[in-house]
Structures are given as C-alpha cells and as structure tokens.
C-alpha cells in the first residue's frame, strides 16, 4: 500500500521512514517536513542516504494530493487535529504518533494540554494503538492514536496486575528513565551537551502530560516522575504498587507470562530489564518481583523510546489495522552492545 510519512524529518519520523523502507506491504511515496521542505533527505539524515539518495522532503500540504492510502503523522502535539479530518474524508487510513487523539475526553485533553481540542468528535472514533491491549479494536480502524512512550512501558508493566486485582488501583508510583531522543530534534538548553553529559534530571513533576494517558489506559491513579538521562534512545520504567493479594515473585512472573503468551514483542524476564535491551527493536521487556516485608509489588519494563515507544509501535498498529501480519517489517532483535 502506498504510504506517506508527514513529519518525516524528526526523530520519530526518521525511524518510521527507516522501517517503512523495508516493509513488505508498505511502499513509501512521500516524506514531508515543514522546516525541511525542498531539502535533501540524504543531507538531512545521512543514515538514509543509501536508500534515498535523491529524494526531497515535501511540504505537509503535499499529502492531500498524494496517492498515499496510509498516512503516518509524526508531528508536534496539536498539529494533527487540523489534518486528520481532511485525510479521513479522503478515505485514507491515519496513524497519528502525537497525543492529539489518545484521550477520550475533550475536557481532560484541555486540562492537560492547555488548549481546546479542535475536533473532539473524533476522540471517540480513534482507536488507541497499543496492540497488546486493543488488538481486536484495531482491525479495520481508520484512525489510530499511537500511544506515548512512557504510557506504553508503564501500561505493559502494570496492566496484568491491575486486570487481576493483584494491586491497588491508587497510590501507584512510576519512575522512568528516557533517552534524550524522546524530547525531539529541536535543540534546547536542557538538551545542550555540556548540561546533559554525565547528568540526569527529573522533569514534568506532578503534571507530565502522559500521566492522564496512563490513568485512562490503566483505570488507576498514579504518581509519575520521568527522568532524562544522557543516552540517545532507550527507556526504563520501575513502578511500585501496594498488593491486594499475598503473592510471590514467582507468581508475579507467571502472571506476566500468561498475559503476554500470545504477544510476540513482549519478553518476560526474571531479571530486571536494562535500558538498552530493546534498543533497535519493537520489543518491550517486562519483569516483576514482590517485597513481602513492605507489601509492595515492583513492576519493571524497558523499550526503545523511538521503537516500541513510537515508530515501530505505530507500524505494528498499522499492520493490525490493515490486516497484515502483526510482525511485518519489525525486528524481534535488539542491538547489542
């Protein structure tokens, strides 16, 4: 199927281009970049030069005149709302990597994102693109809202225990470490090398926008604190929840194994996952243990923030929506060392 990537010059968009270039069923016909329109793809992203030596980025408006049947949107939050209705009216399948259609409540969206949603009627239409939780809903979906990186890692770690009533649905604490590519390509003081190198810092305390997305997906209340660490990509989540049932660490791991037995991209490990385990793949590593002394369960996960946390997850969701093999074009092998 002919495919376009709008916002192809950013980090997530570049990763989409890389994945779609070798996808067996998707054919890339347009790459756009609002600030790079007319510029060489190979010059902007040299790693793509071998496959796209002469191609140029188009402008966002070019997508409406293109032959693309599937459109991936990798744009800043808020930018998709004016594009999606027009794309749907043209009969295209839309996979949005931004936050514009993840929340079901327009009121919650305004509260957490600071502006009124332009197309609230589509919030109930969009299907949340976490395949492991919404596989059946995604089939034949026209509008897919790809989840955020933190909500993906957090949901996959905690959901099996909330689903079974093993842990309390309130008072959950989530700490997360993310590579700096999750902050996007635009330079900032916080991402300046002398400040970032050898450093780590918490940000978005109490009001990080991904909090409401996690709470919606998990049906739970949580306190979320993300941390920026000086690596380019990768994510590690450690979550803490009070247990309602007296279970062992072995039982906790068995719950994860049973929950994800049919999910090819979830790896359950007895050892705590590391931040780099999943880098370069669509994998998410999950693990859990319990502390009988305090009555807390510890759930852990790691993924590639540009992979399962963004681009490859969007491709996985598109595969399901379009009726392809779920694993088409995606890697089950990370990069090591």
Structure report:
One of its GO terms (molecular function) is N-acetyl-gamma-glutamyl-phosphate reductase activity. Residues 2-141 form the Semialdehyde dehydrogenase NAD-binding domain. One of its GO terms (biological process) is L-arginine biosynthetic process. By secondary structure, the protein is an alpha/beta fold. It folds into two domains: 2-146 and 310-322, NAD(P)-binding Rossmann-like Domain (Rossmann fold); 149-303, Dihydrodipicolinate Reductase, domain 2, CATH 3.30.360. The chain contains eleven helices and 13 strands. The protein has a seven-stranded mixed β-sheet with strand order 8-9-7-10-13-12-11. It has a six-stranded parallel β-sheet with strand order 2-1-3-4-6-5. α6 links the parallel β5 (127-128) and β6. α1 packs across α11 (311-322). The protein is globular. The mean pLDDT is 97.
Average pLDDT metric = 97
CATH topology of the largest domain: Rossmann fold
How many helical elements? 11
Helix content, binned percent:
25-40%
Uncertain segments are none
CATH superfamily of the largest domain: NAD(P)-binding Rossmann-like Domain
Q: How many DSSP E strands?
A: 13
Largest sheet geometry:
7 strands, mixed
Please give the domain count: 2
Distance between the termini: 35 Å
Taking strands numbered 1, 2, ... along the chain, how are they ordered across the largest sheet?
8-9-7-10-13-12-11
Write down the secondary-structure element order.
Answer: EHEHHEHEHEHEHEHEHEEHEEEH
GO molecular function: N-acetyl-gamma-glutamyl-phosphate reductase activity; NAD binding; NADP+ binding
InterPro entries: AGPR, AGPR_AS, AGPR_dimerisation_dom, AGPR_type-1, NAD(P)-bd_dom_sf, Semialdehyde_DH_NAD-bd
Pathway: Amino-acid biosynthesis
Keywords: Amino-acid biosynthesis, Arginine biosynthesis, NADP, Oxidoreductase
């Amino acid at each position: 199927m002919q495919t376009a990537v709008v916002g192809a010059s950013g980090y997530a968009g570049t990763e989409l281009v890389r994945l779609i270039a070798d996808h067996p069923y998707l054919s890339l016909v347009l790459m756009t970049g609002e600030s790079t329109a007319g510029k060489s793809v190979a010059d902007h992203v040299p790693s793509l030069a071998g496959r796209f030596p002469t191609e140029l980025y188009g402008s966002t408006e070019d997508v409406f005149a293109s032959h693309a049947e599937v459109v991936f949107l990798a744009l800043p939050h808020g930018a998709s709302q004016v594009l999606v209705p027009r794309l749907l009216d043209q009969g295209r399948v839309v996979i949005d990597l931004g936050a514009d259609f993840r929340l079901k409540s327009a009121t919650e969206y305004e509260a957490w994102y600071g502006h009124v949603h332009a197309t609230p009627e589509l919030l109930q239409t969009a299907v949340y693109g976490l395949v492991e939780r919404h596989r059946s809903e995604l089939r034949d979906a026209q509008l897919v809202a790809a989840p955020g990186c933190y909500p993906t890692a957090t949901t996959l770690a905690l959901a099996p225990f909330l689903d079974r009533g093993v842990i309390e649905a309130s008072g959950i604490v989530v700490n997360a470490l993310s590579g700096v590519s999750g902050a996007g390509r635009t330079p900032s003081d916080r991402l300046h090398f002398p400040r970032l190198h050898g450093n780590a810092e918490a940000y978005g305390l109490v009001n990080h926008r991904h909090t409401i997305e996690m709470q919606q997906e998990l049906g739970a209340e949580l306190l979320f604190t993300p941390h920026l660490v000086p690596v380019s990509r990768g994510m590690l989540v450690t979550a803490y929840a009070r247990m309602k049932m007296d279970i062992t660490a072995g039982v906790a791991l068995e719950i994860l194994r049973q929950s994800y037995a049919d999910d090819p991209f979830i790896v359950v490990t007895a050892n705590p996952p590391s931040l780099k385990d999943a880098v370069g793949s669509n994998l998410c590593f999950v693990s859990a243990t319990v502390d009988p002394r305090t009555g807390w369960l510890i759930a852990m996960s790691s993924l590639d923030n540009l992979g399962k946390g963004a681009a490859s997850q969007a491709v996985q969701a598109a595969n399901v929506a379009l009726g392809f093999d779920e694993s088409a074009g995606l890697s089950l092998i990370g990069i090591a060392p």
